[in-house]
Amino acid sequence: MIPTASQKWLALICMRCPRCCDGSIYAHGMTMNERCPVCNMRFEREPGYFMGALYISYALAIVVLLLFMWLGTLILPDVDLGWIVLICAACFVPFVPVVTRYARVIWIHFDRWAWPSRPEDGD
Fold first, then answer.
1. Backbone phi, then psi, for 14, in 5-degree steps?
2. Could you tell me the residue range of the domain that residue 18 belongs to?
3. pTM above 0.90, yes or no
Protein backbone atom coordinates (compact mmCIF):
# COMPACT_ATOMS: atom_id res chain seq x y z
CA MET A 1 0.00 0.00 0.00
CA ILE A 2 1.39 3.40 -0.99
CA PRO A 3 1.48 5.93 1.89
CA THR A 4 -0.52 9.14 1.54
CA ALA A 5 1.04 12.61 1.71
CA SER A 6 -0.16 13.08 5.30
CA GLN A 7 1.38 9.73 6.27
CA LYS A 8 4.67 10.84 4.69
CA TRP A 9 4.66 14.11 6.66
CA LEU A 10 3.87 12.26 9.87
CA ALA A 11 6.66 9.78 9.12
CA LEU A 12 9.09 12.68 8.66
CA ILE A 13 8.08 14.27 11.96
CA CYS A 14 8.23 10.92 13.81
CA MET A 15 11.58 9.98 12.14
CA ARG A 16 10.18 6.98 10.30
CA CYS A 17 11.09 5.30 7.00
CA PRO A 18 10.03 7.25 3.89
CA ARG A 19 8.95 4.08 2.07
CA CYS A 20 6.74 2.25 4.59
CA CYS A 21 6.27 5.16 7.07
CA ASP A 22 6.48 2.62 9.90
CA GLY A 23 10.08 1.55 10.58
CA SER A 24 12.26 3.74 12.79
CA ILE A 25 15.29 5.41 11.18
CA TYR A 26 17.15 5.68 14.51
CA ALA A 27 17.78 2.71 16.81
CA HIS A 28 18.59 4.90 19.83
CA GLY A 29 20.33 8.19 20.47
CA MET A 30 22.46 9.08 17.45
CA THR A 31 22.72 5.47 16.23
CA MET A 32 20.94 4.94 12.93
CA ASN A 33 19.54 1.65 11.72
CA GLU A 34 21.36 0.52 8.59
CA ARG A 35 18.06 -0.64 7.08
CA CYS A 36 14.40 -0.13 7.87
CA PRO A 37 13.30 -2.81 10.35
CA VAL A 38 9.95 -3.12 8.53
CA CYS A 39 10.57 -2.86 4.75
CA ASN A 40 14.38 -3.42 4.70
CA MET A 41 15.11 -0.19 2.76
CA ARG A 42 18.75 0.89 3.09
CA PHE A 43 18.96 4.40 4.57
CA GLU A 44 22.53 5.33 3.56
CA ARG A 45 22.73 4.84 -0.21
CA GLU A 46 26.45 5.48 -0.65
CA PRO A 47 29.56 6.65 1.24
CA GLY A 48 29.22 10.36 2.02
CA TYR A 49 25.45 10.16 1.52
CA PHE A 50 24.67 12.48 4.41
CA MET A 51 26.75 15.36 3.07
CA GLY A 52 23.48 16.87 1.84
CA ALA A 53 22.14 16.70 5.38
CA LEU A 54 24.85 19.19 6.40
CA TYR A 55 23.13 21.90 4.36
CA ILE A 56 19.80 21.11 5.98
CA SER A 57 21.42 21.06 9.42
CA TYR A 58 22.98 24.46 8.77
CA ALA A 59 19.62 25.93 7.70
CA LEU A 60 17.83 24.45 10.72
CA ALA A 61 20.53 25.78 13.06
CA ILE A 62 20.24 29.28 11.57
CA VAL A 63 16.46 29.25 12.02
CA VAL A 64 16.70 28.08 15.65
CA LEU A 65 19.48 30.54 16.50
CA LEU A 66 17.61 33.47 14.91
CA LEU A 67 14.52 32.51 16.89
CA PHE A 68 16.59 32.37 20.10
CA MET A 69 18.16 35.75 19.32
CA TRP A 70 14.78 37.33 18.58
CA LEU A 71 13.42 36.02 21.88
CA GLY A 72 16.58 37.17 23.64
CA THR A 73 16.21 40.72 22.37
CA LEU A 74 12.56 40.75 23.46
CA ILE A 75 13.29 39.38 26.93
CA LEU A 76 16.54 41.31 27.52
CA PRO A 77 16.23 44.57 25.52
CA ASP A 78 18.98 46.38 27.46
CA VAL A 79 21.62 43.68 27.02
CA ASP A 80 24.30 44.11 24.32
CA LEU A 81 23.65 42.05 21.16
CA GLY A 82 27.06 40.38 21.47
CA TRP A 83 26.10 38.93 24.86
CA ILE A 84 22.74 37.78 23.50
CA VAL A 85 24.53 35.98 20.65
CA LEU A 86 26.82 34.21 23.14
CA ILE A 87 23.90 33.26 25.39
CA CYS A 88 21.92 31.95 22.40
CA ALA A 89 24.88 29.92 21.15
CA ALA A 90 25.30 28.35 24.59
CA CYS A 91 21.57 27.60 24.79
CA PHE A 92 21.67 26.01 21.32
CA VAL A 93 24.30 23.39 22.24
CA PRO A 94 21.78 20.92 23.78
CA PHE A 95 19.71 21.12 20.57
CA VAL A 96 22.57 20.08 18.25
CA PRO A 97 21.79 16.32 18.37
CA VAL A 98 18.10 16.97 17.64
CA VAL A 99 18.95 19.24 14.70
CA THR A 100 21.42 16.67 13.36
CA ARG A 101 18.88 13.83 13.62
CA TYR A 102 16.13 15.81 11.90
CA ALA A 103 18.52 17.03 9.18
CA ARG A 104 19.36 13.41 8.30
CA VAL A 105 15.70 12.39 8.34
CA ILE A 106 14.72 15.34 6.13
CA TRP A 107 17.58 14.47 3.76
CA ILE A 108 16.50 10.81 3.52
CA HIS A 109 12.89 11.81 2.85
CA PHE A 110 13.91 14.43 0.25
CA ASP A 111 16.34 12.07 -1.48
CA ARG A 112 13.77 9.27 -1.68
CA TRP A 113 11.20 11.75 -3.02
CA ALA A 114 13.57 13.17 -5.65
CA TRP A 115 15.15 9.83 -6.64
CA PRO A 116 12.72 7.07 -5.56
CA SER A 117 14.90 4.05 -6.27
CA ARG A 118 18.07 3.09 -8.02
CA PRO A 119 19.21 -0.44 -8.90
CA GLU A 120 22.43 -0.07 -6.90
CA ASP A 121 20.46 0.60 -3.69
CA GLY A 122 19.68 -3.06 -3.24
CA ASP A 123 16.07 -2.21 -2.46
1. -90, 5
2. 5-121
3. no
